[in-house]
Each structure stands twice: as structure tokens, then as C-alpha cells.
Amino acid sequence: MKTLEFDVAVIGAGSAGLSAYRAAKAHGKSVALIEGGPYGTTCARVGCMPSKLLIAAAEAAHAVAEAPGFGVHAGDLRIDGKAVMQRVKSERDRFVGFVVKGVEHIDAAERLRGHARFIAADRLQLDDHTEVMARRMVIATGSSPQIPQELRDLGKHLIVNDDVFAWDDLPESVAVIGTGIIGLELGQALHRLGVRVAIFGRGGRLAQLSDDVINQTAIDCLGGELDLRLNTTLVSAKLAGEQVVVHTRSDDGGERTEHFQYVLAATGRTPNIATLEFAATGLQLNERGLPLFDPLTMQCGDSAIFMAGDVDNDRPLLHEATDEGRIAGDNAARFPRVVQGLRRAGLGIAFTDPQIAMVGQTRRTLKQGHFQTGEVSFTDQGRSRVMRQNRGLLRVYGERGSHRFLGAEMIGPRAEHIAHLLAWACQNQMTVDQMLDMPFYHPVIEEGVRTALRNLKENLVNHVSEIEHCTDCTPGV
């Protein structure tokens, strides 16, 4: 057993861990970057990037299928599953390669391999070969897919999102368990690529939407294309040869038994903490066994241990993980002079079609009586109709009295772009009037934002002026 000593030890070399490492190194500290699994980050290897590659292929197939609506006829659609997956894996490997190359530039003396566990608040043991002493620690071990108990006996026919990107060809059928972002994105993509897909949700919510009106609009939009089974309980899933027999029960008592080639568990993720042995740290833990921490400093209590990324189960998004890593690494290096770091306005996007987005405060976090709502439907919005993407609804929220923009939830065309505009406005604490003073080109989908903001302003001042809308030259802009 060898012993190494560093100023800071970072456990995990994913997005948060790499960010923490760089931040601590910027202070001139010696930093150990510890990783027990493959390099490459969850996002690049099995998350954001390969999923968007699969979605891009699905969008291409969907465009061919939709072309006759424009009077364009491309002939019979043929999807080559092997070619689809070959591109997904090839481009995925390219993205992973960029990350791995960056890691390889780190001093080999600071790149440690092994699974870490605490043996004291300032000491780690890596497997059975190395003890690491460090006065400051950053925990950035990420998360793993959660597997429901009912699915654990399905062997190779049970898959998580990681497994999808190892396929050499597209399967015949998949049952998706979970209606969160991962389940919806992969479920719709596979459906558009010719896979028979059913998506099961225990409740009636899609993609963590909390606005009831937006959620119902999302159900209407996506349910018109996908086989959505909401408010449905998975009774059992059993192997029968090379198929899985899935037995479900809906809230109205109806039961169905169906056969699928694979079952995709998309029921959330679990922090990777099982082997860290927090008991040795003396940290105060919550009911889920996670250390209590300050989301503005990432500090656990008043200790020299910090959390960052998906492991803290707070905001499981790449840009948030990177920010948390930067804050944690900076504060670990400057400990005990801990400072609050920049936490950006909330921004979440599901790359379904139509896309789903949440910005700033959502309906779940808003205080009743302190806000007003404005909205716009994309059904008759000019540019949306031009592109035959006129589905969805945007709802924006503003604070009574101050008229400050608070947040939004939406499903609609190009929501990823609209969400960024609204997030910038939210972070800059702009008022609705200030947002309406910004330029809006014509014809663009963003004109729908102006309509929603005008509706919000009218509701905030409790006055409706139809004259305001007379300058709009197409419906819904």
C-alpha cells in the first residue's frame, strides 16, 4: 500500500470532477483526480451527445415522412438501422475522444485510478493499493440509472440508456418505463426510426413539467404520435425466450399483456455513493444518505468536503455540473475562506418534438398569489405554420407589483432557442416591459414570445388592450 499526499482530492473525473480539478489547480494547489471507471464523462459517452445523434437520425426520418405535407415526395422511406447506429457510435467515440485527450494532458502523477472510499475526513483508500491524504475533498462521483425491482431479472433484455448506444442495429420493439426526459427522448427517437415503442408512466406527468396546462398540452402533442400509457402500473415483466412479457394495469383497472424485445428502464438516476463510506467523514447525512450541503458554496456543513454534479441529486444537467464543479474546486482550494459561487437561472430542455423547456421558476416553485401568467399557442403562430410545426403552448410567469419576469414552461417548436432567451432575461432580472423593448424580427417563432409577454403584461396590470395587437401582420405573432 502506497501513500500519496495532495492539497485537494477530487473523486470522479466526469464533467463536475474535471471542472473542480481545473478550478483547484488555478489556485496553484496539488490536486489528485481520482477515477474508477472509464474516462469520457456521462454526457459524451452515454448521455447528451449520443442521444442527440440518435434524435438527429430520427428527425431526418421524420422529415422524409412529413415532406408530402409540403408537396414534396421523396419516395419510400428506408431506415438502415446498422448505418444509424454506426454513425451514432462513431460520432460518440469522437466526442469521447476529445474528453479523454483532455484528461491525458493532466499530469500523470495527479491522475489516480481506482475506486475511492473514505477512511477519515481527510483520507481516502483507492481499492487495495493506494492511500490518499488530502485536507480538502470534492465528491463528484456522478449517478447511475435506477433499476426498478420488477425489472432486475430480465438479463440482457433489460437496458438503460447506456446500453442503447452499444447496439449494432435497431431492435424490433422496446417498452420504455418512465416518462421523464430520457424516456421521452429515446422513446420518440426509436419510434421514428421504425421501432415499435410503448412508453409507460406511473403518473400523469411528462418530463417533470409542473404547469398543468403545459403538461396536458404535452400529452396531447406527444400522445398524438406516441403510444403513451400514463397512470399505468407495471405489474410484472418476465422473460419468455427472446422476448419480455410485460403485464401492466392502468388506473381504470384495465390490464394488458404484451411482448417486447427489450425493456428500457428510464425511471431516474441514483447518486453513486454506495461505496464511499461517509460514516468515516462524520458528515451529517439526509434521509437518502447524502451529505447535507450548501448549493451556493457546495460545502458539506462546515467541513473541508464539497459536493458537485449529479451525485448531489440537485440539478442533474451538464451545465449545472460544470458550475458546481467550478464552485466546489474553487472553495476546496481556498478553504476555509469559502465563498458563494454563481448559480445561473434554471434552464432545462427535453429534445422531443415538439421540444419541452423549463426556465427560471416553474409553476411548482411559484408562490400562489404572487404571480400572473401569460401564454401563447403555437397553433396559429405565423412562422410555426409556415414550417408545419404549429403545435404547443408557451406560458410565462411575472411577479405582481414589480412586473419582473420569473420563468416559463413550454412545449413547442424550437423551444431550445426560446428557452435560452428567456433564461438570459430571467438571470438579468428583467421586467416584462424591458423584455418587450427588445427587438423581434419577422417572421420568426420568437414573435410568439412577444405575444405571451403582452398577454402577461395585460394580466399584470389587469387591463386588456386589443389595440396593441393591431400591428401584428400574421395570426399568433
Automatic annotation (TrEMBL):
Top-rank lineage group of the source organism: Bacteria
Membrane spanning stretches: none
Entry protein name: Dihydrolipoyl dehydrogenase
Co-factor(s): FAD
Positions of the FAD/NAD(P)-binding domain: 6-325
Protein family: Belongs to the class-I pyridine nucleotide-disulfide oxidoreductase family.
InterPro entries, alphabetized: FAD/NAD-bd_sf, FAD/NAD-binding_dom, FAD/NAD-linked_Rdtase_dimer_sf, Mn/Fe_SOD_N_sf, Pyr_nuc-diS_OxRdtase, Pyr_nucl-diS_OxRdtase_dimer
Keywords: FAD, Flavoprotein, Oxidoreductase
Signal peptide: none
Listed Pfam families: Pyr_redox_2, Pyr_redox_dim
EC number(s) stated in the UniProt entry for this protein: 1.8.1.4
Occurrences of domain Pyridine nucleotide-disulphide oxidoreductase dimerisation (ranges): 349-452
Species in which this protein is naturally found: Herminiimonas aquatilis
GO molecular function: dihydrolipoyl dehydrogenase (NADH) activity
